[in-house]
Amino acid sequence: MPGITLGDTVPNLEVETTHGKFKLHDHFADSWTVLFSHPGDFTPVCTTELGAMAKYAHEFEKRGVKLLGLSCDDVQSHKDWIKDIEAFALGSKVKYPIIADPNKEIIPQLNMIDPIENGPSRALHIVGPDSKIKLSFLYPSTTGRNMDEVLRALDSLLMASKHNNKIATPVNWKPHEPVVISPAVSDEEAKKMFPKGFKTADLPSKKGYLRHTEVS
Ligand code: BEZ
Fold it and tell me: Which residue, 66, 120, 177, 215, could crosslink 33 as a Cys pair with Cβ 3.0–4.6 Å?
C-alpha cells in the first residue's frame, strides 16, 4: 500500500517526544506544522539540520507555524543529543519537540522511509491545521535539507491558502514578488479579485494563461 501523501490525513498517532506524550492531531490543531524526520541521533548531517531548525525557529514562530522533529532513537538519547546540537548551533536552543522512534515503528506510518535504503530518510511534511499533508520533501540520508527552501515553500503554501488557491507562486518565488493567477480563474473574475490588476504575458500561443499580479 502506498504511504500517506499530499492531501492525506496524517494518522492520529500517540507519540512520545522530548516534550512528553501527545496525539499528533492535538499538536497539529489550529496551526500549520513542519514535521521533519532524521535517520538517527548523534549523526553529523542531522546535527547540522536540527541546529539550523533551532536557528530558524523564530521565522516559523513569526508565521505561527510549529516545528516537530522525529529521530529514530529514544527520548533520553534525544535529550543528550540536544546538548550537542545547541553547542553546534552557537546560542540557539532546541525548543521544538522531537518524536522518539527507536524501533522505527512510526516512520513507515508517516511515509518517512527511504525506499532505496528501506530505512529512515530525511522526509519533511508540511501539515495544515486540518491534519492533512500540504507538501512533502523526501531526501536521502546523504543530503541535508535547505532551510531557506523549507521557509520559501511554506510561504508559498500560506500565500496560496490565504487566497483560496486562486493564485500560485512561480519559479523561485519569494515573498513580496508577483504571483500568478490560477488558470481556473477567468479574466473577468481576476479583474474583480485582484484590485491591483494583472499583466498577461504576450506569448506566441496568444492563450493568455500566464498572468502576474501582486497580492499581500
Ligand atoms: C548524518 O546525519 O550525517 C547521516 C545519517 C545517516 C546516514 C548518513 C549520514
Answer: 66
